[in-house]
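Summary for the steering committee. One of the milestones for this cycle was to obtain a three-dimensional model of the protein with magnesium ion bound, which we needed before selecting residues for the alanine scan. The sequence and ligand used are listed below.
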Amino acid sequence: MDAVATVATALWAMLPAYVPNNAAVLFGGGPPIDGGRTMGGRRLLGDGKTWRGTAAGWLAGVGVGLLLRELRDPVSDALGVALPTLPLAAALALPLGAMLGDIGASFLKRRTGRERGAPFPGVDQLDFVVGALLLGAVAAPSWFFETFTLPVLAVVLVITPVLHVITNAIAYVLGLKSEPW
Ligand code: CTP
Ligand code: MG
């Protein structure tokens, strides 16, 4: 695989995991998942993790995954790159894993004394990638290991924090997010 194909594969396969966070910011609100419960005097997850945001994020990611399944052949032809075809299981698992990774990070943030919205450098940028990759590997193992070769994984780990910082900065400037991370 050449460099262009490696980057295109990484972006294509991860797109269903990139969308959920942004959809959650747009559509989040309402009752928090933890129902206000606390652990050791701090919120279990906090008000930033809601049922609505999580469902919206997952659905948006699945929608993108289904769209990518339809677009794979024409886009591959147009680019001259053999893009990966997402199995249905991956289209469901990648966005769910992204949301669960983000929720897991909030759990960690609360346990380490960070208030809602406090930055946790590294974790904020990669929590959803780790969740998406783990669940993707469990849900569609043969596709996963065929698609996420070491070079593709390396590209994902480099590009994702960059994309995350850029999209969050945009969301902040647009007033959609109260902090730029
Ligand atoms: N959001 C949501 N449900 C989720 C994830 C996000 O409703 N599962 C919405 C919330 O409105 C949240 C916003 O998206 O405030 C931004 O998400 P994020 O930065 O992950 O949450 P924070 O508010 O920063 O909280 P935390 O410190 O727990 O990350
Ligand atoms: Mg945050």
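Key point for the committee: The pocket of cytidine-5'-triphosphate (ligand 1) is lined by residues 24-25, 28-29, 46, 48-50, 53-54, 99, 102-103, 106, 109, 116-118, 177 (CB under 6 Å).
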